[in-house]
């Protein structure tokens, strides 16, 4: 193979099959095997782009200096437009290499052996509406009684003619997986109906418009940070922290906890900016700013956040790959999780179990209470990250882990020891202070989940362009400009996903340009009020919860009657 010569798709595919890390950028093949362990954004951000034309993703995520540096990794050219390959990390073979595939179960009923299940033969499934904005009206039909009414699972189980049979886990898993797949297919069909066609011409046109929009944003200077805005914000942060200290000195302990919680909620917006290099545009100073705010001021690892957030931005709302929506058994925003998926982020099999059967049907009720205590889970995830091998796989950014450990230790020395243990006088006040200060930050947790948890999780395939997927899986929140301080840029998540390095104080101006882009390309710009957006999220949680509830009733019916649909 001649260096920098034209490479065929077959040649690229063969090299990837041999284990090479090849990514297409701007018509060139990049060999990133030597760079992947040095990538400050982590290995997974590259692995999910292997075999794909990642021109848009790479361009909007990197500075001009980084893009220039990438030229040294070019090993050839390809003819455009490029037809994306499936990245090996997203393939079934990768999953099976970590979690060996179970052999096809032989299901026994009486003395008959059958190897497959047709859910339609069960007589228990009916079509389910897949609208993400309205709850389902049911998924399973139980047999009719002689009166013509639907029998309940309880009634069926008490039928003296029907003796309870041993629960067949293999059958339940098959039925559940088949049902989940049918729901996925319905959402895919709906997505293809509501969004621009996935043919090469249409998607290429969207890409070209998106690249022109990117140039327009650069030419308007919207990548330049508004430092005066940070000056004003720093005053607000100082006032909140000063209020906390003042109330604490007056021994208004629980009231001071409110001020501290608001301080945490507000200052984390700047940590988010730093994580995207949206303040100085340079890795070292932005990393230090982010670590000081997230680790030292808030006790949360900026390294953990970046490792998951970079992946989230690239494969948004993909159940198997996006860690931001992998919350089983507490929450499920997708029927896909009923199939017990393998997470490529955690290298872990999320098994759908009895806990999920019990908790997910009630998730619309548990959403806000769990958001109120979500910060405690972030502490755990932060420490698990810093103590894991992933925190050391940053190449030239190896030093960030040590900085974070020092800052995190400083946070717990000040908050955990000096404040909670030494300053607060009694255990009831200590517990109350910790709970109140952490519950206040539920505003932030709702803001973070709002933009994606109500959106589709279907994968329309490798032909879908980067900008279309981001707009399809992300919503923005409509609010007046004077409320921007409360949302901290998180109200512009769709705009942010299209241009992650744009400083958040410029996102409102970008929003106008994105609206025009959507009009030109026939893409939908999904923007709702805060209350309406919360309703959409709760509707999605309720929709998936009803799916699970119907599935559980089906399983109870099967266990009570011995009916398995294997006739």
Automatic annotation (TrEMBL):
Keyword terms of this UniProt record: Heme, Iron, Lipid metabolism, Membrane, Metal-binding, Oxidoreductase, Sphingolipid metabolism, Transmembrane, Transmembrane helix
Enzyme class label: oxidoreductase
Cellular compartment(s): Membrane
GO biological process, one term: sphingolipid metabolic process
Superkingdom per UniProt: Eukaryota
Family: Belongs to the fatty acid desaturase type 1 family.
Protein name: Delta 8-(E)-sphingolipid desaturase
Native source organism of the sequence: Lophiostoma macrostomum CBS 122681
């Amino acid at each position: 193979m001649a260096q920098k010569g034209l490479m065929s798709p077959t040649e690229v595919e063969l090299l990837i099959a041999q284990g090479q890390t090849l990514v297409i950028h701007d018509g060139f093949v990049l060999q990133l095997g030597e760079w992947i362990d040095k990538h400050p954004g982590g290995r997974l951000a590259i692995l999910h782009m292997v075999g794909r034309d990642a021109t848009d993703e790479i361009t909007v995520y990197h500075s001009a200096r980084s893009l220039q540096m990438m030229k040294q990794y070019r090993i050839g050219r390809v003819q455009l437009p490029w037809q994306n390959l499936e990245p090996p990390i997203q393939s079934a073979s990768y999953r099976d290499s970590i979690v060996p595939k179970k052999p096809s179960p032989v299901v026994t009923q009486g003395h008959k052996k059958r190897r497959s299940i047709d859910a339609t033969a069960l007589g228990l499934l009916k079509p389910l509406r897949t609208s993400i904005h309205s709850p389902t009206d049911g998924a399973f039909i139980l047999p009719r009684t002689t009166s013509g009414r639907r029998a309940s699972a309880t009634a069926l189980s008490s039928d003296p003619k029907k003796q309870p049979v041993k629960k067949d886990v293999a059958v339940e898993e098959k039925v559940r997986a088949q049902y989940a797949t049918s729901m996925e297919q319905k959402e895919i069909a709906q997505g293809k109906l509501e969004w621009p066609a996935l043919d090469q011409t249409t998607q290429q046109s969207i890409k070209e418009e998106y690249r022109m929009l990117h140039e327009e944003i650069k030419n308007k200077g919207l990548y330049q940070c508004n430092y005066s805005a940070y000056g004003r914000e720093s005053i607000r942060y100082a006032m909140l922290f000063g209020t906390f200290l003042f109330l604490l000195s007056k021994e208004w302990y629980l009231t001071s906890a409110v001020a501290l919680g608001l301080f945490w909620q507000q200052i984390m917006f700047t940590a988010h900016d730093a994580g995207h290099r949206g303040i100085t545009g340079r890795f070292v100073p932005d990393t230090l700013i982010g670590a000081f705010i997230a680790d030292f001021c808030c006790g949360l690892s900026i390294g953990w956040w970046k490792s998951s957030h970079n992946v989230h931005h690239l494969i948004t709302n993909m159940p198997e790959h996006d860690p931001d929506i992998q919350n089983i058994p507490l929450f499920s925003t997708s029927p896909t999780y009923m199939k017990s998926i393998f997470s490529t982020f955690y290298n872990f099999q999320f098994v759908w179990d009895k806990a999920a059967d019990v908790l997910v049907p009630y998730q619309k009720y548990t959403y806000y209470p769990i958001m109120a205590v979500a910060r405690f889970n972030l502490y755990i995830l932060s420490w698990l990250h810093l103590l894991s091998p992933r925190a050391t796989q940053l190449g030239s950014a190896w030093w960030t882990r040590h900085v974070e450990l020092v800052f995190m230790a400083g946070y717990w020395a000040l908050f955990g020891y000096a404040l909670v243990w030494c300053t607060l006088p009694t255990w009831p006040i200590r517990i109350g202070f910790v709970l109140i200060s952490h519950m206040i930050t539920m505003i932030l947790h709702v803001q973070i989940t709002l933009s994606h948890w109500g959106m589709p999780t279907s994968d329309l395939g490798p032909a879908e362009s980067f900008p279309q997927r981001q707009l399809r899986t992300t919503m923005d929140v409509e609010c007046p400009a004077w409320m921007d301080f409360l949302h901290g840029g998180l109200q512009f998540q769709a705009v942010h996903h299209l241009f992650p390095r744009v400083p958040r104080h410029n996102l409102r101006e970008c929003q106008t340009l994105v609206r025009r882009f959507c009009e030109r390309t026939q893409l939908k710009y999904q923007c709702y009020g805060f209350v309406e957006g919360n309703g959409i999220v709760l509707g999605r949680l309720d929709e998936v919860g009803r799916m699970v509830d119907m599935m559980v009733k089906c399983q109870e019916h099967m266990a009570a009657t011995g009916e398995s649909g294997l006739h």
